[in-house]
Amino acid sequence: MDENTQKKLKTPEAKLAIAIALFFIIFVAWQLFLPLQGKQRYTISYSQFLEQLDAGNIKAVTLRNLQVTGEFKKEIEIKQKKEGPITVKNFQTFLPTFQGEKLIEELNKQNVVINVEPSEGKSFFWQFIVAILPWVIIIGAFVLFMRHTTKQIGGGPGGLFSFGQSKAKLYDVRKPHITFEDVAGLYNVKKELEEIIEFLKDPEKFRRIGAKIPKGVLLIGAPGTGKTLLARATAGEAGVPFFSITASEFVEMFVGVGAARVRDMFEKAKANKPSIIFIDEIDAIGRTRGTGLGGGHDEREQTLNQILAELDGFEPNEEVIVIAATNRPDILDPALLRPGRFDRHIVIDKPGWKEREAILEVHARDKKLGEDVDIETIARGTPGMTGADIENLTNEAALIALRKNKDRLDMGDFDEARDKVLMGTVR
User: Fold this and answer.
1) Average confidence (pLDDT) over 180-187
2) What pLDDT was estimated at residue 98?
3) Using CA atoms, how far apart are residues 275 and 341, in angstroms rounded to an integer?
4) Does residue 184 sit in the same domain as residue 333?
Protein backbone atom coordinates (compact mmCIF):
# COMPACT_ATOMS: atom_id res chain seq x y z
CA MET A 1 0.00 0.00 0.00
CA ASP A 2 1.54 3.32 -1.11
CA GLU A 3 1.70 6.51 0.97
CA ASN A 4 -1.14 8.24 -0.92
CA THR A 5 -3.50 5.36 -0.22
CA GLN A 6 -2.54 5.38 3.46
CA LYS A 7 -3.18 9.12 3.68
CA LYS A 8 -6.59 8.73 2.02
CA LEU A 9 -7.55 5.97 4.47
CA LYS A 10 -6.67 8.30 7.39
CA THR A 11 -9.07 11.04 6.26
CA PRO A 12 -12.28 11.53 8.30
CA GLU A 13 -14.39 10.66 5.24
CA ALA A 14 -12.64 7.32 4.76
CA LYS A 15 -12.90 6.50 8.48
CA LEU A 16 -16.64 7.22 8.44
CA ALA A 17 -17.19 5.04 5.36
CA ILE A 18 -15.16 2.20 6.89
CA ALA A 19 -17.10 2.45 10.17
CA ILE A 20 -20.46 2.24 8.34
CA ALA A 21 -19.28 -0.73 6.25
CA LEU A 22 -18.00 -2.60 9.31
CA PHE A 23 -21.29 -1.98 11.14
CA PHE A 24 -23.33 -3.58 8.35
CA ILE A 25 -20.91 -6.48 7.89
CA ILE A 26 -21.03 -7.31 11.59
CA PHE A 27 -24.82 -6.93 11.77
CA VAL A 28 -25.45 -9.08 8.68
CA ALA A 29 -23.05 -11.76 9.92
CA TRP A 30 -24.74 -11.75 13.31
CA GLN A 31 -28.18 -12.18 11.75
CA LEU A 32 -27.07 -14.91 9.36
CA PHE A 33 -25.02 -16.98 11.76
CA LEU A 34 -27.14 -16.55 14.89
CA PRO A 35 -29.60 -19.30 13.88
CA LEU A 36 -26.71 -21.70 13.34
CA GLN A 37 -25.78 -21.39 17.00
CA GLY A 38 -29.10 -22.95 18.04
CA LYS A 39 -30.21 -26.55 17.61
CA GLN A 40 -28.97 -28.31 14.51
CA ARG A 41 -31.98 -29.41 12.45
CA TYR A 42 -31.98 -32.07 9.77
CA THR A 43 -34.27 -31.72 6.77
CA ILE A 44 -36.50 -34.77 6.29
CA SER A 45 -39.03 -35.54 3.60
CA TYR A 46 -42.70 -34.86 4.18
CA SER A 47 -43.47 -38.60 3.95
CA GLN A 48 -40.93 -39.30 6.74
CA PHE A 49 -42.64 -36.63 8.83
CA LEU A 50 -46.06 -38.32 8.34
CA GLU A 51 -44.59 -41.74 9.21
CA GLN A 52 -43.20 -40.42 12.51
CA LEU A 53 -46.46 -38.60 13.21
CA ASP A 54 -48.47 -41.80 12.71
CA ALA A 55 -45.97 -43.62 14.94
CA GLY A 56 -46.49 -41.03 17.69
CA ASN A 57 -42.83 -39.99 17.70
CA ILE A 58 -43.40 -36.23 17.29
CA LYS A 59 -42.95 -34.28 20.53
CA ALA A 60 -43.49 -30.67 19.39
CA VAL A 61 -43.70 -28.66 16.15
CA THR A 62 -43.53 -25.04 15.10
CA LEU A 63 -45.56 -23.94 12.06
CA ARG A 64 -44.49 -21.00 9.91
CA ASN A 65 -46.24 -20.81 6.53
CA LEU A 66 -45.22 -24.03 4.68
CA GLN A 67 -42.27 -24.76 6.98
CA VAL A 68 -42.53 -27.22 9.86
CA THR A 69 -39.77 -27.51 12.47
CA GLY A 70 -39.95 -29.86 15.42
CA GLU A 71 -38.45 -32.43 17.77
CA PHE A 72 -38.78 -36.21 17.90
CA LYS A 73 -39.58 -37.99 21.13
CA LYS A 74 -36.96 -40.59 20.30
CA GLU A 75 -34.04 -40.15 17.95
CA ILE A 76 -34.47 -41.86 14.59
CA GLU A 77 -31.81 -43.25 12.30
CA ILE A 78 -31.71 -41.94 8.75
CA LYS A 79 -29.69 -43.57 6.01
CA GLN A 80 -27.62 -41.40 3.67
CA LYS A 81 -26.30 -42.25 0.22
CA LYS A 82 -22.61 -41.43 0.64
CA GLU A 83 -22.15 -41.21 4.39
CA GLY A 84 -23.29 -43.75 6.88
CA PRO A 85 -26.58 -43.58 8.85
CA ILE A 86 -27.06 -40.69 11.29
CA THR A 87 -29.35 -40.20 14.29
CA VAL A 88 -31.68 -37.20 14.21
CA LYS A 89 -33.44 -35.50 17.15
CA ASN A 90 -34.49 -32.13 15.66
CA PHE A 91 -35.92 -31.84 12.17
CA GLN A 92 -37.49 -29.58 9.62
CA THR A 93 -39.66 -30.22 6.58
CA PHE A 94 -41.87 -28.39 4.14
CA LEU A 95 -45.53 -28.94 3.40
CA PRO A 96 -46.64 -29.48 -0.20
CA THR A 97 -49.63 -27.22 0.48
CA PHE A 98 -50.84 -25.58 3.64
CA GLN A 99 -53.16 -28.22 5.09
CA GLY A 100 -54.50 -26.04 7.91
CA GLU A 101 -57.07 -27.73 10.13
CA LYS A 102 -56.42 -31.26 8.80
CA LEU A 103 -52.79 -31.23 9.88
CA ILE A 104 -53.59 -29.60 13.21
CA GLU A 105 -56.22 -32.29 13.93
CA GLU A 106 -53.64 -35.03 13.35
CA LEU A 107 -51.18 -33.28 15.62
CA ASN A 108 -53.77 -32.91 18.34
CA LYS A 109 -54.65 -36.60 18.15
CA GLN A 110 -51.00 -37.41 18.86
CA ASN A 111 -50.83 -34.86 21.71
CA VAL A 112 -48.12 -32.89 19.90
CA VAL A 113 -47.26 -29.44 21.28
CA ILE A 114 -48.09 -26.95 18.51
CA ASN A 115 -46.42 -23.52 18.16
CA VAL A 116 -47.33 -21.07 15.41
CA GLU A 117 -45.08 -18.18 14.35
CA PRO A 118 -46.20 -15.26 12.17
CA SER A 119 -44.84 -15.18 8.64
CA GLU A 120 -43.36 -11.70 9.22
CA GLY A 121 -40.99 -12.97 11.88
CA LYS A 122 -38.33 -14.16 9.46
CA SER A 123 -38.16 -10.89 7.54
CA PHE A 124 -37.57 -8.66 10.59
CA PHE A 125 -33.91 -8.27 9.73
CA TRP A 126 -34.65 -7.06 6.22
CA GLN A 127 -37.37 -4.75 7.50
CA PHE A 128 -34.83 -3.24 9.85
CA ILE A 129 -32.32 -2.80 7.01
CA VAL A 130 -34.90 -1.13 4.78
CA ALA A 131 -35.91 1.23 7.61
CA ILE A 132 -32.46 2.26 8.83
CA LEU A 133 -30.33 2.17 5.66
CA PRO A 134 -31.77 5.32 4.00
CA TRP A 135 -31.15 7.34 7.17
CA VAL A 136 -27.57 6.08 7.44
CA ILE A 137 -26.92 7.01 3.80
CA ILE A 138 -28.51 10.46 4.19
CA ILE A 139 -26.64 11.29 7.41
CA GLY A 140 -23.33 9.97 6.05
CA ALA A 141 -23.70 11.91 2.80
CA PHE A 142 -24.58 15.08 4.73
CA VAL A 143 -21.51 14.77 6.97
CA LEU A 144 -19.19 14.14 4.01
CA PHE A 145 -20.72 17.04 2.06
CA MET A 146 -20.37 19.48 4.96
CA ARG A 147 -16.75 18.51 5.60
CA HIS A 148 -15.87 18.91 1.92
CA THR A 149 -17.74 22.20 1.58
CA THR A 150 -16.23 23.81 4.66
CA LYS A 151 -12.74 22.91 3.49
CA GLN A 152 -13.40 24.56 0.13
CA ILE A 153 -14.69 27.81 1.65
CA GLY A 154 -12.15 28.08 4.42
CA GLY A 155 -13.48 25.87 7.17
CA GLY A 156 -10.27 23.85 7.26
CA PRO A 157 -9.83 20.28 8.49
CA GLY A 158 -11.88 20.92 11.58
CA GLY A 159 -15.14 21.10 9.64
CA LEU A 160 -18.08 23.42 9.94
CA PHE A 161 -17.23 24.78 13.39
CA SER A 162 -13.66 25.80 12.52
CA PHE A 163 -14.52 28.88 10.46
CA GLY A 164 -13.25 31.11 13.24
CA GLN A 165 -9.92 29.33 13.65
CA SER A 166 -6.86 31.30 12.66
CA LYS A 167 -4.90 30.28 9.57
CA ALA A 168 -1.68 31.70 10.96
CA LYS A 169 1.35 29.42 10.49
CA LEU A 170 3.40 28.78 13.59
CA TYR A 171 7.16 28.49 13.08
CA ASP A 172 8.58 26.41 15.92
CA VAL A 173 11.73 27.84 17.52
CA ARG A 174 13.07 24.32 18.04
CA LYS A 175 13.43 23.86 14.29
CA PRO A 176 16.16 25.52 12.19
CA HIS A 177 15.31 29.21 12.07
CA ILE A 178 16.43 32.41 10.37
CA THR A 179 18.60 34.99 12.17
CA PHE A 180 20.07 38.36 11.25
CA GLU A 181 23.08 36.53 9.78
CA ASP A 182 20.77 35.37 7.00
CA VAL A 183 19.65 38.96 6.32
CA ALA A 184 22.35 40.83 4.45
CA GLY A 185 22.47 44.62 4.64
CA LEU A 186 19.63 46.58 6.27
CA TYR A 187 21.97 47.58 9.11
CA ASN A 188 19.90 50.54 10.35
CA VAL A 189 16.71 48.48 10.29
CA LYS A 190 18.34 45.72 12.34
CA LYS A 191 19.39 48.25 14.97
CA GLU A 192 15.81 49.40 15.40
CA LEU A 193 14.62 45.81 15.77
CA GLU A 194 17.30 44.89 18.32
CA GLU A 195 15.29 46.68 21.00
CA ILE A 196 12.33 44.38 20.28
CA ILE A 197 14.58 41.34 20.46
CA GLU A 198 16.07 42.45 23.76
CA PHE A 199 12.61 42.93 25.25
CA LEU A 200 11.47 39.45 24.19
CA LYS A 201 14.64 37.93 25.63
CA ASP A 202 14.56 39.81 28.95
CA PRO A 203 11.25 41.61 29.58
CA GLU A 204 12.09 42.07 33.29
CA LYS A 205 14.86 44.48 32.34
CA PHE A 206 12.26 46.85 30.84
CA ARG A 207 9.78 46.37 33.69
CA ARG A 208 12.36 47.38 36.30
CA ILE A 209 12.86 50.78 34.75
CA GLY A 210 9.20 51.24 33.79
CA ALA A 211 9.79 51.31 30.01
CA LYS A 212 7.10 50.15 27.62
CA ILE A 213 8.03 48.40 24.43
CA PRO A 214 6.06 49.33 21.25
CA LYS A 215 2.99 47.12 20.81
CA GLY A 216 3.30 47.06 17.06
CA VAL A 217 6.00 47.57 14.45
CA LEU A 218 5.08 48.55 10.91
CA LEU A 219 7.60 47.63 8.21
CA ILE A 220 7.20 49.88 5.18
CA GLY A 221 8.98 49.09 1.94
CA ALA A 222 8.70 48.13 -1.70
CA PRO A 223 7.93 44.50 -2.60
CA GLY A 224 10.97 42.26 -2.29
CA THR A 225 12.91 44.42 0.16
CA GLY A 226 12.89 41.69 2.84
CA LYS A 227 10.05 42.67 5.19
CA THR A 228 8.91 39.09 5.83
CA LEU A 229 12.50 37.89 6.13
CA LEU A 230 13.22 40.57 8.72
CA ALA A 231 10.19 39.61 10.80
CA ARG A 232 11.20 35.93 10.81
CA ALA A 233 14.80 36.85 11.63
CA THR A 234 13.60 38.95 14.57
CA ALA A 235 11.74 35.93 15.96
CA GLY A 236 14.79 33.74 15.29
CA GLU A 237 17.11 36.13 17.15
CA ALA A 238 14.73 36.32 20.11
CA GLY A 239 14.09 32.56 20.05
CA VAL A 240 10.32 32.93 20.37
CA PRO A 241 7.34 31.41 18.48
CA PHE A 242 6.48 33.22 15.26
CA PHE A 243 2.90 33.37 13.94
CA SER A 244 2.73 34.41 10.27
CA ILE A 245 -0.38 35.20 8.23
CA THR A 246 -1.36 37.26 5.21
CA ALA A 247 -4.04 39.84 5.95
CA SER A 248 -6.23 38.63 3.09
CA GLU A 249 -6.55 35.23 4.82
CA PHE A 250 -8.67 36.83 7.55
CA VAL A 251 -11.48 37.82 5.23
CA GLU A 252 -14.04 35.28 4.02
CA MET A 253 -17.45 35.43 2.37
CA PHE A 254 -19.15 35.14 5.77
CA VAL A 255 -19.39 38.27 7.89
CA GLY A 256 -17.73 37.87 11.29
CA VAL A 257 -15.30 35.11 10.31
CA GLY A 258 -12.34 37.49 10.00
CA ALA A 259 -12.91 38.98 13.46
CA ALA A 260 -13.16 35.48 14.95
CA ARG A 261 -9.88 34.49 13.33
CA VAL A 262 -8.18 37.58 14.68
CA ARG A 263 -9.34 36.70 18.22
CA ASP A 264 -8.18 33.12 17.81
CA MET A 265 -4.75 34.16 16.52
CA PHE A 266 -4.13 36.59 19.39
CA GLU A 267 -5.29 33.99 21.93
CA LYS A 268 -2.79 31.47 20.53
CA ALA A 269 -0.01 34.07 20.58
CA LYS A 270 -0.75 34.99 24.20
CA ALA A 271 -0.79 31.31 25.15
CA ASN A 272 2.72 30.95 23.65
CA LYS A 273 4.15 34.25 24.90
CA PRO A 274 6.68 35.69 24.48
CA SER A 275 5.85 35.53 20.77
CA ILE A 276 5.65 37.53 17.56
CA ILE A 277 2.64 37.93 15.26
CA PHE A 278 3.48 38.88 11.69
CA ILE A 279 0.70 40.20 9.41
CA ASP A 280 1.85 40.55 5.82
CA GLU A 281 0.16 42.96 3.39
CA ILE A 282 -1.87 44.54 6.16
CA ASP A 283 -3.23 47.09 3.67
CA ALA A 284 -5.62 44.32 2.49
CA ILE A 285 -7.71 44.88 5.62
CA GLY A 286 -6.17 48.06 7.06
CA ARG A 287 -7.47 50.54 4.50
CA THR A 288 -9.16 53.71 5.68
CA ARG A 289 -12.67 52.85 6.87
CA GLY A 290 -15.82 54.32 5.41
CA THR A 291 -14.59 54.26 1.82
CA GLY A 292 -17.09 51.72 0.49
CA LEU A 293 -20.37 49.90 1.03
CA GLY A 294 -21.37 46.27 0.87
CA GLY A 295 -20.78 42.98 2.64
CA GLY A 296 -17.12 42.67 1.63
CA HIS A 297 -16.28 46.10 3.06
CA ASP A 298 -18.32 45.39 6.20
CA GLU A 299 -16.38 42.18 6.79
CA ARG A 300 -13.03 43.91 6.18
CA GLU A 301 -13.88 46.75 8.56
CA GLN A 302 -15.06 44.33 11.26
CA THR A 303 -11.74 42.49 10.94
CA LEU A 304 -9.81 45.75 11.22
CA ASN A 305 -11.87 46.81 14.24
CA GLN A 306 -11.02 43.51 15.93
CA ILE A 307 -7.29 44.00 15.31
CA LEU A 308 -7.50 47.49 16.82
CA ALA A 309 -9.39 46.10 19.82
CA GLU A 310 -6.80 43.36 20.34
CA LEU A 311 -3.95 45.89 20.23
CA ASP A 312 -5.77 48.11 22.73
CA GLY A 313 -6.43 45.09 24.94
CA PHE A 314 -2.76 44.33 25.46
CA GLU A 315 -1.58 44.80 29.00
CA PRO A 316 1.68 46.73 29.39
CA ASN A 317 4.58 44.45 28.47
CA GLU A 318 2.26 41.67 27.31
CA GLU A 319 5.28 39.96 25.70
CA VAL A 320 3.45 39.70 22.37
CA ILE A 321 4.79 41.90 19.57
CA VAL A 322 2.80 42.52 16.39
CA ILE A 323 4.82 43.17 13.24
CA ALA A 324 3.00 44.19 10.07
CA ALA A 325 4.28 44.82 6.58
CA THR A 326 2.94 47.01 3.79
CA ASN A 327 4.06 48.75 0.62
CA ARG A 328 1.07 51.13 0.70
CA PRO A 329 1.26 53.11 3.96
CA ASP A 330 -0.65 55.98 2.36
CA ILE A 331 -3.94 54.05 2.34
CA LEU A 332 -3.80 52.71 5.91
CA ASP A 333 -6.42 53.77 8.44
CA PRO A 334 -5.09 56.48 10.80
CA ALA A 335 -6.32 54.45 13.78
CA LEU A 336 -3.72 51.79 12.96
CA LEU A 337 -0.86 54.29 12.93
CA ARG A 338 -1.54 56.17 16.13
CA PRO A 339 0.60 55.65 19.27
CA GLY A 340 -0.50 52.66 21.31
CA ARG A 341 -1.00 50.46 18.27
CA PHE A 342 1.67 50.42 15.58
CA ASP A 343 3.94 52.76 17.49
CA ARG A 344 7.10 52.23 15.48
CA HIS A 345 7.35 52.72 11.72
CA ILE A 346 10.45 51.33 10.01
CA VAL A 347 11.08 52.24 6.40
CA ILE A 348 13.05 49.69 4.37
CA ASP A 349 14.62 51.29 1.30
CA LYS A 350 16.06 49.49 -1.66
CA PRO A 351 19.63 48.42 -0.88
CA GLY A 352 22.67 50.43 -1.94
CA TRP A 353 25.56 48.77 -3.74
CA LYS A 354 27.32 47.84 -0.48
CA GLU A 355 24.18 46.14 0.79
CA ARG A 356 23.61 44.48 -2.59
CA GLU A 357 27.14 43.09 -2.35
CA ALA A 358 26.35 41.58 1.06
CA ILE A 359 23.08 40.15 -0.26
CA LEU A 360 24.90 38.62 -3.25
CA GLU A 361 27.40 36.95 -0.92
CA VAL A 362 24.55 35.38 1.07
CA HIS A 363 22.80 33.97 -2.01
CA ALA A 364 26.06 32.84 -3.59
CA ARG A 365 27.06 30.70 -0.59
CA ASP A 366 25.82 27.46 -2.15
CA LYS A 367 26.87 28.34 -5.73
CA LYS A 368 30.12 27.24 -7.36
CA LEU A 369 31.66 30.44 -8.72
CA GLY A 370 34.39 30.76 -11.33
CA GLU A 371 37.62 32.67 -10.70
CA ASP A 372 36.48 35.60 -12.86
CA VAL A 373 33.36 36.27 -10.77
CA ASP A 374 33.63 39.63 -8.97
CA ILE A 375 30.79 40.13 -6.47
CA GLU A 376 31.51 43.87 -6.14
CA THR A 377 31.27 44.43 -9.88
CA ILE A 378 27.98 42.55 -10.04
CA ALA A 379 26.62 44.56 -7.09
CA ARG A 380 27.57 47.87 -8.70
CA GLY A 381 25.88 46.78 -11.92
CA THR A 382 22.47 46.06 -10.28
CA PRO A 383 21.14 49.48 -9.23
CA GLY A 384 17.52 49.53 -8.10
CA MET A 385 17.34 45.79 -7.44
CA THR A 386 15.76 44.54 -4.24
CA GLY A 387 16.86 41.55 -2.20
CA ALA A 388 14.31 39.35 -3.99
CA ASP A 389 15.64 40.53 -7.37
CA ILE A 390 19.20 39.67 -6.37
CA GLU A 391 18.15 36.20 -5.19
CA ASN A 392 16.43 35.70 -8.53
CA LEU A 393 19.57 36.95 -10.31
CA THR A 394 21.84 34.35 -8.69
CA ASN A 395 19.35 31.56 -9.39
CA GLU A 396 18.96 32.58 -13.05
CA ALA A 397 22.77 32.66 -13.43
CA ALA A 398 22.97 29.11 -12.05
CA LEU A 399 20.26 27.92 -14.47
CA ILE A 400 22.04 29.55 -17.43
CA ALA A 401 25.32 27.85 -16.47
CA LEU A 402 23.50 24.53 -16.15
CA ARG A 403 21.96 24.87 -19.60
CA LYS A 404 25.49 25.46 -20.98
CA ASN A 405 26.79 22.34 -19.15
CA LYS A 406 29.23 24.37 -17.02
CA ASP A 407 30.65 23.25 -13.70
CA ARG A 408 30.91 26.82 -12.37
CA LEU A 409 29.23 30.18 -12.81
CA ASP A 410 31.19 32.89 -14.61
CA MET A 411 30.65 36.61 -15.16
CA GLY A 412 29.00 35.95 -18.51
CA ASP A 413 26.26 33.97 -16.75
CA PHE A 414 25.63 36.83 -14.30
CA ASP A 415 25.56 39.41 -17.10
CA GLU A 416 23.01 37.36 -19.05
CA ALA A 417 20.94 36.75 -15.91
CA ARG A 418 21.04 40.48 -15.05
CA ASP A 419 19.67 41.42 -18.48
CA LYS A 420 16.92 38.82 -18.09
CA VAL A 421 15.93 40.00 -14.60
CA LEU A 422 16.00 43.69 -15.62
CA MET A 423 13.83 42.92 -18.66
CA GLY A 424 11.34 41.17 -16.41
CA THR A 425 11.39 44.09 -13.95
CA VAL A 426 10.75 46.60 -16.74
CA ARG A 427 7.83 44.58 -18.04
Assistant:
1) 80
2) 61
3) 17
4) yes
